[in-house]
Amino acid sequence: MPTLICDCNKTMPLDPKALGRALDEDLTLHSTLCRREAGAFQQAVKSGADVVVACTQERRLFGELGQQTEGAVSPIRFVNIRETGGWSRDAKGAMPKIAALLAAARLPEPEPVATVTYKSEGRLLVIGPLEDAERFASVVGDALDVTIFSRGGSGAQERRFPVVSGRVEKLTGWLGAFRLAWSQDNPIDLDLCTRCNACVAACPEQAIGLDYQVDLDACKSHRACVKACDVAGAIDFARAPVAHEDAYDLVLDLRRQPSFLQHAPPQGYFHLPPGEANGPKALGVVLKLRELVGEFEKPKFIAYKQKLCAHSRNEQVGCNACIDICSAEAISSEKSRQQVKVNASLCVGCGACTTVCPTGALTYAYPRAGEQGTKIRTLLATYERAGGAAPVLLLHSQERGQALVEELGRAARVGAAAGVPANVIPLAVWHVASTGIDLWLTAVAQGAAHVALLATNEEAPQYLEALEQQMQVAQAILEGLGYQGRHFSLLRGRSATDLDQELQLVAQRRGATPPARARFAVSGEKRTTLDLALDHLVEHAAAKPESIALPAGAPFGSIVVDKDKCTLCLSCVGACPSSALQDNQQAPQLRMVEGNCVQCGLCAKTCPEKAITLQPRLLLSPERKQSRVLNEAQPYGCIRCGKPFGTLRGIEAMIGKLAGHSMFQGEALQRLKMCGDCRVIDIYSSTDEARIGDQ
Questions:
Q1: Average per-residue pLDDT for the chain
Q2: The whole model's pTM is what?
Q3: Hey, which end of the chain has fewer CB within 10 Å, N or C?
Q4: Is there a contact between 2 and 46 (Cβ–Cβ < 8 Å)?
Q5: What is the C-alpha separation between 141 and 290, in angstroms, rounded?
Q6: Per-residue pLDDT for 338 more than 70?
Q7: Alpha carbon of 569 to those of 67, 311, 645: distances in Å?
Q8: pLDDT of res. 121
Q9: Spatial separation of the C-alpha atoms in residues 218 and 283, rounded to whole Å
Q10: Residue 284 in 3-state DSSP?
Q11: pLDDT-based confidence at 569, cuts 50/70/90?
Q12: CB 590 within 8 A of CB 570
């Protein structure tokens, strides 16, 4: 796979020999690859092998040049080594990082996944004041089929677009599938109205505006407007509200309060409150609206495995983490089916649900966890092979985060910033919330001295809270194992200046790492990856306590059973989604495999005696993966045949509760002490029992 490097007119101190040794490739250093030395690029793309071009600024130029080159068949990959390292104050020491970035660019593209399709015919609904709605409609009306839902204001005399008005009941859906439910609750029917303005002139209270709707609070019921509209017959104060429902592909909402309050509204919905309707954001919205006609696809980002889900059992809700954190409200509960439901059309692919999911029932599908893990392992291994020390992995989003990193690199080039430090390796992900404790601990096990996440102003507040909570859990584990230093940071960068200051501090936070680097591959199963990372970290730990206390919400732990309350009904065993709680077929026992526990709380919520308390911790002894007894009791033998059929405490509790009941008096009370078979025999052998067949 040919790799083409360029020092961009000698503005980067690249060392082709050092980079070549790390990549096992002879590299040629170029200075004007996009200009005078473009022939080297043309020769490379004729090879048939994938070509890595270490330049993203001239991506378009190289793409056009490849199309114009006869015999060019090679796929081209682009990687930024300039703003991410070559343009920084310590660029001379950045060769290990640059080698790592080049090595990661050579990895195969993620495997394709199922897609979600949107179809838009350009039916646009504009909601808002009539004059503003008509102004936007006139700008996009040549490309879109516009309908205006008038919410006050005054419009033009000419009727250029369909206008409806009334009360919005509900707006639901997404790109290509919006549904507007509304009621026509105003006396003036806009379909019949001719805009002759006779009603406006006739109304003594001036209760009718040029949106041709009656202000019922100002109206004094003179009905002069009805007389003025006698011919058209558009005004009827006696008409009952009429319910309507219409379908649209796109929605532009110009009201102050949006229809969708979630942080990530549905695709195809745009909100421009009055203060922004005339600002620079409006131009961007108009351009996006004009582009959203046709058929569009996006990856189906999230995969779901119900058998691993800890959301619900027996109509009891345990884990609600994914529902609570979703900023698009794309995840809902289906208690009757003991699962959650992900609406792929609403999902924006942030992956926060996979991060907080304790069991791995929700996993990120594009890229898959294994592919993301391979990239991290490649970055860290190449960095180490090239002679780098104490690498810091900086995870940032592909959009705003990437733009911020590049802005910092350009500022460093002109001396306005220090730039990305030599030991900080940027890694773009779709969204920073898509990575969690499994990948972070894996990165530390594989040699990362620190893992930093760059948050910009695009993240929902609950994402940042969840990431900080995950970092607290991961940090507590490493501190408990004796790994010194701080290993995780959540950077809040609003500008390149903020990011520059944060990165200079992060570059010095060198947490201790295992002496031997882990080489395991990240599994598609979250708990499997966690176990592999923990096993490696424990093996090389300086401290090995029996257990480590963890913050509430951690995905590891045990339960504490109040033996005075527990009757060993074992309802908790049936509720446990991860097989952490087990019974014993040979004796009345409640057993636990602590390594399986995800702290979902279903056992505590199901327990009728309220005898269970969660205990977040990480058990390090071999007992973590073994079954141990939490509670056991003396079996209760049938008073007729002697066969055990319950526990002594359970039968005594049942007798105590039913002893005063009229149905359980005399011999009937004694039958509670019998097994099921003997109870039936006793009923049929008793002469005092009434039977259906008795005459």
A1: 91
A2: 0.86
A3: C
A4: no
A5: 9
A6: yes
A7: 72, 22, 12
A8: 96
A9: 37
A10: helix
A11: confident
A12: yes
